[in-house]
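[SOLVED] Predicted holo structure with flavin mononucleotide

Edit: marking solved, answer below. Original request kept for reference. I posted the sequence and ligand SMILES and asked for the 3D complex as structure tokens.
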Amino acid sequence: MNPIAYHDRTKHRLDGYAAGPDTLDWSMQPDPFRTYKGTKRIPLPLPEDISAVRGNPSVESVGSLLQLSMGLSAWKAYGPDKWALRCNPSSGNLHPTECYVLALNVPGMESGLHHYVSLDHSLELRCAVSWEGETRLFFGLSSIHWREAWKYGERAFRYCQLDIGHALGSLRYAAAVLGWGLCMIESPEDVLGTTRMEDFTDAEREEYDLFLEADLGAGINGFPEIRMNEWKGKANRIDPHPMYTWPVIEEVAHSTRRKMPLPTRTGGTAMNGIHAAKAILGRRSAQRFDPSHFMRNEIFFSMIERLLPGNAIPWDIWGFEPKVHPVFFVHRIEGLEPGLYILPRNDNASLRQNLNRDFLWERKGPLYLLARADCRQVARVVSCRQAIASESCFSLGMLAEFLILASDPWRYRQLHWEAGLMGHVLYLAAEAAGLRGTGIGCFFDDAFHEFLGISGHELQSIYHFTVGMPLTDNRITTLPPYPERRMT
Ligand SMILES: Cc1cc2nc3c(=O)[nH]c(=O)nc-3n(C[C@H](O)[C@H](O)[C@H](O)COP(=O)(O)O)c2cc1C
């Protein structure tokens, strides 16, 4: 199924949601942790003092990077229920994204491909590799679609892609904390072992998504010449009793596999370490907002600045032209009139032609004011009537340019990754400013399009987001992420 047909079919509409399960039994939730039985398990260190491990690649710094990106950030408890949170957010906290590390000659680590298990912060050696050369470090991401499809049905492929965008952002910021660059590179599609049917005989398949190289100081040099033939381990089954099947997910996954080469990246990687560890570990989604809080103007505009493309983190991760444009519902920002605003992230003139002809296009810094209005009601309605979209300081929808899908259907995934990256920038910027964000995957696609005067498929909304002053639920207890482990 081509991605545009999939996108249309999985729209939530005011009169009905995309196809999904009729009922959910939470006690039957798929296992959120994949493991490979028969692999060597290596516990990773949890360095307390990141500055001591920064810069030099070692098992400690890799441990730190994984903790700050894909690791657990807390356990939460409410009554008899207990659930883990991670540094990377995920739709419904279902975590379809799996992370792999290819470490070559990293001090303290066996060279080879490892699978990361966030539950106990350990690695499983999937394939040992012999390597005599210099130290190199790579990361790979894949998705277990069923984890999301279990709850969200056909729309789940979109959520898996948005989650990959957040995982990309998580890895990029964590690499920066360690003083490293990170960049998407070409790799063989079977590098993560996800195409080895024999290792998934009784387990849900994983879909390869992307591969990254860390710039440890010697630049980005591309996929290394290695032989991978010592595979170990069998994947665990995450759902013994699946109640539904959603074949369109595999169909769209198939039609959106990458065939075109990645664009060359211009400019280097931003290597200057950022001191974001506190915001990364503290990042949470707000579940409710203070509906009277006004956000400071300069905080808002510094967030906007970070959404703009360039060689800054995290946009140095690839060489793609930006194709996703946020449209803001501004509710309460000091010195900024409430209304509808857009941040064009490239100079595509057709953006203007595709939106309501009555819009004002009055310049406000990098933004354009489209209409003065109290948008709370409409923001809430288009975001599946969720109050988090109206009680925050601002919320937004992200419009993606879909024309590129005709020549390269894989960009459907990449556009969602770009949107997920934007969400991640906002999550961390909000956290650092004492505010909070929440990703919004549930929105009424065409209701939002109609509101903006969009018809046709040139621009489509692919993700919504909201930022404000959170109200915390004190009934929920927070516990440490790795209570059994001593920090080294
Ligand atoms: C792609 C995506 C879509 C999401 N959609 C919603 C949503 O529609 N409504 C909501 O309340 N939270 C939404 N969330 C927030 C998740 O529920 C949250 O990330 C997850 O429960 C983990 O909690 P944490 O972010 O505090 O770690 C979304 C998150 C992501 C990454």
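OP edit: The pocket of flavin mononucleotide is lined by residues 85, 89-93, 159, 162-163, 166, 284-285, 386, 388, 438-442 (CB under 6 Å). Thanks to everyone who chimed in.
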